[in-house]
Amino acid sequence: MGDTPGSTGIGGEPTLEEQIAAYQREFQDLDPQVEKIVSALSRLNRRMNVAYGRQTAALGISNADWEVLKALVLSGAPYRMGPSELAKRLGLTPAAMTHRIDRMVAEDLVTRKRDETNRVRVIVELTTEGREKWLEAMRLATVFEEDLLQDLSADDRTALGDVLTRLLRRVEHAQPDAGGRLTDLD
Amino acid sequence: MGDTPGSTGIGGEPTLEEQIAAYQREFQDLDPQVEKIVSALSRLNRRMNVAYGRQTAALGISNADWEVLKALVLSGAPYRMGPSELAKRLGLTPAAMTHRIDRMVAEDLVTRKRDETNRVRVIVELTTEGREKWLEAMRLATVFEEDLLQDLSADDRTALGDVLTRLLRRVEHAQPDAGGRLTDLD
DNA sequence: AAGATAAATTTCGAAGCTAAACAGTACACT
DNA sequence: AGTGTACTGTTTAGCTTCGAAATTTATCTT
Fold first, then answer.
1. Which member of A27, A69, B57, B120 has the greatest number of CB atoms within 10 A?
2. What does the DSSP 8-state code read for residue A15?
3. Which stretches are annotated as coiled coil (chains A, B) (predicted)?
4. Quick one: angle between helices A128-148 and B154-174, nearest 10?
5. Alpha helices, H only, chain A
6. Closest residue by Cα to residue B181 from B97, B82, B99, B98
C-alpha cells in the first residue's frame, strides 16, 4: 500500500528501503516492486507539495487561494467563473466556496460581482494582483521542477512522461470522476 | 509547475493535454516535457489519495487515524510509540497528537498507558483491532495498486521504480527534512 | 400569476489545529 | 539529600475552515 493515505513523515522517517522492508515483515503478500513504485510516488509527491507550499507561502497566499487562482487561470481569457462552478471543480460545497471567495476578495486576489445578464449568478474574476501571484508561483515552480528533473536526460523525461500518463489514463478510467475531497494538493 | 499546490479537479477537469496547452498559453517559458511529468505526477497522486481515502473510509477510519496506525506498524514488533515521537513523525504539535490519540483510544484503535519505567512518558500501543484495520487497508491497497500497474511489464516496473527513487533522492537531498505540515496523505 | 427550479449566501455548528500555560517526573549538580 | 533544570504530556482557549440546512433572490415554465 505504499504510503497509502496519511502520513507526512517529517521526523525520524525511515528510508524508502527500510520502509519497504518493514512492510514486508508486517504484511507477507506484498510485491516489493509495486511497493517501491507506489511509495516513491507518494514520497515524491509529498516533497513536491511541501516545496510548492513553501513557495505559495512565500508569496503570501494559502493553498486554498492557490487552487482558486489556478482554476481561474485555466479557464482562460477573461479569467471568470461562477462560485458553483468553482466549487464543483475544487470538490467542495458552494457554502465553502462562498467563504473562500470572501477571504480572497479581502486579499484582493479576485473580485465578485453579480452577472447582470442573469442576476442569479455571480462572477468571480481574477484581479491583476491575483494573476501576478499566479505568475510568480509559476516562476518559482519551474525553477524547482527543473531542479528536480536535472538528473534525467531528454529521453528519460519523455519515457517517464509516457509511463506516467499511461498510469494516469488507467486510474482515470477506473475511477471516472466521482468526486471526493481528500485534502489534496495536487 | 504542474498542478503545483492546491486543486482537486473533480468537476469539469480539463484533460492533461488541455491543461498543459492552457498553461503554455498563460505562461510562455514553460517546458512542456517537464510540465507533463509534473502534472501527471500530481494527478496520479491525487487519484491515488482519493482511492486510498475511500478504502480507509470503507473501513471506518479517518486519514488521521491511518497516519498513526501506519507509524505504529512501521515501528515494529510491540507496536509502541510515545506521543511526542508520533507528533514529530507526523509533523504536528504534541497537543494535536494528544487530541488525536484521544479519538483513537475512543475508537479502540490504540491504547494509552503510562510508562512505569519512566513515568514521564506515555506509551501508545496498537490494539489488535487497530492492527487488523491496518491489515485490511493494506489488502485493499494492494489490489488497487496491482490494478494501477497492470499495463506495465516487469521491466517497465523496475525502470519506473529506479527513476522515481532517483528523483526522490534528489528532492530529499535538496530539502533535507525541514518539516512542514501540508495536509499530505502520502 | 404561481409554482418550480436554481444560485449564492447566511447561520450554526463541528472538526482539527496551534499557542501558551500547567503539571508531573527524571536527572544533574552541589 | 536538596534544588534547579529540562522534558513529556495534557489542558485550555481560540482560530480557521469546512459542511448542512435554511434563506434570499432571480429566472423559467405553464
1. A69
2. P
3. none
4. 110
5. 16-26, 32-58, 63-74, 83-90, 94-106, 128-148, 154-174
6. B97
HSE-up (13 A, CA, CB side) for residue A33:
12
Q: Indicate yes or no: strand C within 7 A of the C-beta of B185.
A: no
- For residues B32 and B29, what is the distance between their CA atoms, to the nearest angstrom? 9
**Residues 6 or more apart whose Cβ sits within 8 Å of residue B99:** none
pLDDT per residue of chain B (186 residues) written in tens, 0 to 9: 444 433 344 667 889 999 999 999 999 989 999 999 999 999 998 889 888 888 898 898 998 999 999 999 999 889 999 999 999 999 999 999 999 999 999 999 999 999 988 999 999 999 999 999 999 999 999 999 999 999 999 999 999 999 999 999 999 887 765 544 433 334
Decide: CB of B16 under 7 A of nucleic strand C: no
Distance CA A5, CA B105 (A): 20
Does an H or E element contain A110, and which?
Answer: strand A110-114
Q: Which of B85, B148, B180 sits opposite A54 (nearest CB)?
A: B180
**Looking at chain A, which residues constitute the CATH 1.10.10.10 domain(s)?**
63-132
Q: Find, in chain B, the residue whose alpha carbon is nearest to that of A135.
A: B27
Reported CATH class of domain A63-132: mainly alpha
